[in-house]
Amino acid sequence: MLLDVTNLTVCYDKAMLINNISLHVDRGELVSLVGPNGAGKSTLLRTITGLVAWEKENLRGTTGGDVTIEGQVSFDGQRIERMPAHEIVKLGLVHCPERRRPFREMTVYDNLLAGAYLSQDKESNAKNLATVYKLFPVLAERSKQISGTLSGGEQQMLAIGRAIMSQPKLLLIDEPSTGLAPLLREEVFQTIMEIRKLGITILLVEQEVARVFKMASRNYVLSSGKIIAEGQGEQLLADEVIRKTYLGL
Question: What is the pLDDT of residue 60?
């Protein structure tokens, strides 16, 4: 088991955003996390990768209230729920956030190098950069272009490429298809499958439920901060209540 989340709860003041969630991801899997908007999917990923804990310590009083985190998170056999976010990245657990979020004033090349900021191995960094350019040839073509001038699809490619530069064992990808045209969405999904072939385990949050169910080994359905179902795509789609109430299908 590569990732093991046990009884994880996250509260902002009195609002419970994550309610006693347990899930796991085995090495080599592509696991999806789906559910309606506001279900807590992004908060779950941010908690796993230490970003919510960072906000708790560094943004106290500026985000509208206090944050409480309970439960356990283990990655590759090591407890990480109290570990700083950058140390979690060093272990190989890497978060590709929603809404792309490039360093807009920097070039594509410099954005990709920023993904390797924890590595001093120039040979490994060059190899990873070559992998990114093979996955996304357009990034090689636009390596000197300012990232803020890229299209939405190109920015998504850049966000995933930057995450790959961090040498992930497990890549958490949050809503990669949001705002993209159908052809670009399909291109992103195909690339995610290529990333899995590289030996990178993936936990994918996505709204395109029918498409992601065809890709994933297993799926979790999240609603109101709780996991209400788990299983393979065909199994979940056969449940009329889950399909209509939680998946909107």
Answer: 55
SS (H, E, C) 153-166: HHHHHHHHHHHHCC
Rounded-to-integer distance, Cα 102 and Cα 220, Å: 28
Q: How far apart are the C-alpha atoms of 7 and 36, rounded to whole Å?
A: 21
Q: Which residues on neighbouring strands pair with residue 96, listed in sequence order?
A: 173
Instruction: State the virtual CA torsion across 230, 238, 182, 33 in degrees, nearest 10.
Output: -10
**Matching residue, tokens 């140390």:** 87
pTM attached to this predicted model: 0.92
Q: What angle do helix axes 152-164 and 122-135 make, rounded to 10 degrees?
A: 150
Residue 84 belongs to domain with CATH number: 3.40.50.300
Closest CA to 95 of 42, 136, 38, 142: 42
Using alpha carbons, select from 136, 189, 124, 198 the residue that is nearest to residue 161.
136
- Over residues 21-37, the pLDDT tens digits come to 999 999 999 999 999 88
If one counts the domains in the chain, the total is 1
Q: In this predicted model, what pLDDT tens digit does every residue of 164-218 receive, in sequence order?
A: 999 999 999 999 998 888 998 999 999 999 999 999 999 999 989 989 999 999 9
Helix (H, G, I), strand (E, B) or coil at 244: helix
The CA distance from 233 to 209, in Å, is 9
Residues 69-128 pLDDT 10s: 999 999 999 999 999 999 999 999 999 988 767 888 999 999 999 999 888 888 999 999
Task: Show the domain range for 136.
Answer: 3-246
Residue indicated by tokens 């996250």: 10
